[in-house]
Write a structure and sequence with these properties.
Distance between the termini: 14 Å
Helix content: 55-70%
Order of helices and strands: HEEHHHHHHHHHHHHH
Oligomer: single chain
Radius of gyration: 25 Å
Strand order of the largest sheet: 1-2
Number of strands: 2
Number of helices: 14
Strand content: under 5%
Amino acid sequence: MIEPAITEWTSQLARWVHVITAVAWIGSSFYFIALDLSLKRREGLAKGVSGEAWQVHGGGFYRMQKYNVAPPELPRELTWFKWESYATWLSGFFLIVWIYYLQADIYTIDPAKLPLAPWQAGLLGLGVLAGGWIVYDALCKSPLGKNDVALGAVLFALIVAASWGFGLVMSDRAAFLHTGAMIATWMTGSVFFVIIPNQKKVVADLIAGREPDPRLGKQAKQRSLHNNYLTLPVLFLMLSTHYPLAWSSAYAPLIVACVIVAGALVRHFFNTMHADQGYVWWTWGGAAAAMALAAFLSVAGRPSFETVDFDAGFDLPEAQTIAFQEAMAVIQGRCAMCHATEPAWAGIASAPKGVRFESPADIMRHAEEIRIQSVLTGAMPPNNITDMTPEERRLVAAWLAKRDGR
């Protein structure tokens, strides 16, 4: 077993890197989409230039020009925008392995759905990511890929269907996370396998004195446009793992659909604005309606209180020990008013992070989280709002020590 301090610090540092690189990638992606749409055709532009845009930032003026395919000759220095995408995906992949596969029994496996071993859960997750990319790439390269609207509709249905499928074999939280990770893999896969290779082929043609194939740029632009419209839904799906009201709902796939619609509408507003085609204000109303529907579905589809098995785990040897019974009394007395199917604490709609302490099985399953939050630190209860005493924390620590064989 990995030391909790190592687990905690590794997770936090990896998240830090992931957020930093994601900010860089999303920022550059949004910038270049806005730049591309804002280009204007003016007299006097060089041959092959499709348009230009003047910009001001940091006290300086910038003149940005775009070539239809490529310039007649390359400059000595050429900046490639790819490492932001690669670093974001690699740090995210590390996190999903570190948290959802190496700690699969806590975060990924739901025995009531599919009683997997941790290694099986890890292989399932890896298969989902790899298989999702293969299907997405094949659809884009198929005849369907020539029709952006039809392709978009099929990809939308594929994401919603995948979310539903993940929910059949994984914990609700892992299903939501893997839906986002699958889309993120599409996005970085497009950069790695299509956008950058196509740009390198254009560069090679220029160096060799050949005319670059304009289809290469069109393929890259299609993938870049997908990335632009999928960015906001991916961010929501990743962040929502901390907010269980959405992913614990029986209507989680429909909530995913609502989020995709809302994110696409918001991006459509900005894309239209940057293209100087006016302000399509109705998109904000559509996005708000989609998110309102998502919020309604999250409440309407909450797990039923009657489905909770309060006696689950009592027949296990660990539940018979005095150390566990003392710890359970403390945990249920100080923590279960929030960590319950229907929290009793005012202002809390669902169990934080989906963690419940209503049965012995619940408590055993989340032993490591209890260790970090209530023994190694005093993070829980927050601000010790339920007055958990040092002696009570020692009782929990004694159970955990006995659990470890110490």
